[in-house]
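Let's practice the habit of predicting before peeking. Look at the sequence and jot down your guess about where helices and strands might fall. Then scroll down.
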Amino acid sequence: MNPFSLASSIALVTGSTKGIGHAIALGLGTAGATVIFHGTKRSEPLPPGSRFIPADLGAPEAPAALVADAFAAEPGLNLLVCNAGSFFDVPFLEMGADRWDRTMSLNVRATYFLAQAFARELIARQRPGAMVIVSSTNGFQSEDDSTAYDTSKGALVMMTRSLAQSLASHCIRVNGLAPGLIHTPLTDSWLGGKKPETRRHYEKKILLGRIGEPVDCAGTAVFLLSPAAAYITGQVLVVDGGLTVGQIGRM
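Done guessing? Here is the structure:
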């Protein structure tokens, strides 16, 4: 048996129509899983025959409704990747309650209640399962003009550990994936060539010498959800090319 195979699994991946979530969903499919894609609308092309469920997870009841729809579509669902999130920050002294609430609602609240609804369904079916919560290196290290986002990602790091403890007795593993600087639609505005000196700065700071691509996160998610990680829970794996390892980087 291949311990990295997901051939008998069904996964829901939130925020999977573009960027890191899309790459993770494709990676899970390549490993054999049946994948349910999610987003507010379709963006990148999806594999033929793929299921897609649209939902705005910022709405209070949307997380539970999405999970219910996913189980209705695929009753054997046993894996969840909580990837949906975004960045709404302005400088700290300009931050208002609306932007703060929008950040926490999508990045933290939605993740928490997605995980809760998913766990309740698994427990009702007496089925084991696994989750991956996508946080960020911003959950460990701060960044300019990113106070709400940094705070939300730090919350996801602790949420991963806390949910792992809460759900271990139900045979539900919870782990985290913390991407570093990845070239996605969210980062394209300042990595897409308008400021080449910014890109060069980060390429020198990252030990492996390049900005990450979404596909760099896919293998980590496959591993954490696979039988190969059956004895791992409550851990957050950093996928950053060594960005957070050195203090100064190359000159």
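How did you do? The first strand starts at residue 10 and ends at 13.
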